[in-house]
Amino acid sequence: MKKYIPLLLLAACGFQPMYTSRDTDIYVAPISGINGIDLRNGLNAKFGGVRDANAKYTLTVNLKNPVTRYKALESTGDATWQEIVLTANYTLTVDGKQIARGTESASESYTFVRYLVAANASYNNAVQNIIQILSEKIGTRVIAETYRYEQQSDNDTDNKQ
Length: 161
What we know:
alpha+beta; 5-stranded mixed sheet
């Protein structure tokens, strides 16, 4: 019986999960660059699939080029660790009206080795991990904003009646 008490308390407070059977009708505009393609694919997956430009919401993302910084140097001056930072600015609109905008960034460190193939693989894996993190951060924020907008629209409709 004790394990059901938290469920009863949540039900009584009006808690409603954002993701439950909600259709996220969000069109993700094309994002430039190979990293942009991967980010767009990640966002579309988060939103439940690709939508066309006639969707209710439009998400526009500007992905900046990766910034690489050295994090660790050997006594010879050779880099052994690098950090990659990706930053994305986004705007969410509905019917041409902006309802949310923001900036998200993510970073990851990777081992920088002398072997070209291994160094490229480490770099590419780090970038893919960052893109996955960015798609989660932006996607979660956008879903929250669409949910808030829907709730606000429903309240406005109820107040007019």
